Amino acid sequence: MVDSAMAYSIAPNSIVKKRTGPAAWLRTLALSAAALLAACGGNHSGTPTATALTYDTPRALYVVGESIATNHARLSGGSASAFTVSPALPSGLTLDTLTGAITGTPTALQRETSHTVSASHPAGSVQTQLRLTVTGRGAWTSVATVPTPRHYATLSRLPDGRQLLAGGYALGGPSSEADIYDPASGSWSAAAPMLVARADPAAVVLADGRVLVFGGDAAGFSTLASAELYDPVANTWTATGSMNEARTRHSARVLTDGKVLVVGGFRGPAPLSFSSTAEVYDPATGTWTVLPTPLSSARAQHAAQLLPGGTTLLVAGGVNSGGFVTSAELYAVDGSATTPIAFGGSGNVMLSVPLDDGSVLVTSDAGTTAWRFDPHTSTWTPSTQNTGRLLPTMTLLADGRVLLAGGAGQTTAEIYNPDLNVWTSAASMAHVRQAAVASRLDNGQVLVVSGSVAGVEVNSTERYTP
């Protein structure tokens, strides 16, 4: 008969003394040894296990069709037996399950996404987060040219997806011509001409699908106050009420109630008079009403975007009789108040687009700096473009990126990647162009029409595929 023996087993918060038989004693001793070994960072094989996992580039920006530099995994404290990732890496990239290295050539665009990489070892696993974005250069295709090339025109998406090109400078003066581009057939057709020849007007699409075109320059750079409406069903133009003030290079935005807010602009001929007023167009009555509060600074060629909620208009930069306007303001769309805010940017012509997080991206022709306004903090964050551009087109892409294309002497284009606040090169256009017009098509492509080079209209239309 064998006497029973004393043995100790490890419980989470105590040591429990109990009597066991010889077999149980051996099993407990083995388990205790394994637990102690794991607690000391080892495993059954005696190889130290990893305590941390990092990557050479934990936040990476890749480009479709371009092989990436190997992104190596780095383990601290020991080794791992296998690597896994969730969710799956961007299409075209591969995780080496033995080394954790990421290699390959991305094949599809991806906004910034967090991927969890796990490195497994006998005692458990360690994890790290990768934040990966895939952008693209895109490609341009030349398509049918508009019957009469022009610059400083307007381009508006009609309810059925066709694009209306109206007005502009052509053949040495303001034009009343209007044409429609059909993305499905890739062809142009003539629309009814406008009632008034006008260059550099503003245009917005109303809630009922009609297009309001207003202001701009007549012959001799005499500024217009008149407005007209295009009905795409009837293919007709109808005069509507005139603005209270003639304007060129003003901004216009459709409000949440369907009315149209117009601010600033200038009036010619020289010497130019710059406006600080705002007025609202009511489609139901066809009339304009001047709002009671003027802008804090008169300005034209400024940036203007509605902020989330639709009650405030961000107005930034521009020019007036004193030169570049370096201020910005938050204008209440009901005309009740305006609040000046810091800006610091400057330029002759400002462009802007609203981003999908509610912020606003602003560019100018004064250099390579762009600015992003955060309405939650009322702060600006700068970014640096690849090149300075005079009178390019700026288009918000369907995936939230921004295309900046052309400008004086430029065929190049670039992409703003909002998740990283970084600009990357895009494919170049076939033709140099400035003062062109651009609009996003329903399939996500961008249509860029005409423009000018040294005052001569560009007889070219191109489509950009992101």
From TrEMBL:
Protein name as annotated: Kelch-like protein
Superkingdom, taxonomy of origin: Bacteria
Matches recorded under SUPFAM superfamilies: Kelch motif
InterPro entries (UniProt xref): Gal_Oxidase_central_sf, Kelch-typ_b-propeller, Kelch_1
Pfam families registered for this protein in UniProt: He_PIG, Kelch_1
Record-annotated membrane-spanning stretches: none
Coiled-coil regions, chain positions: none
Keywords: Kelch repeat, Repeat
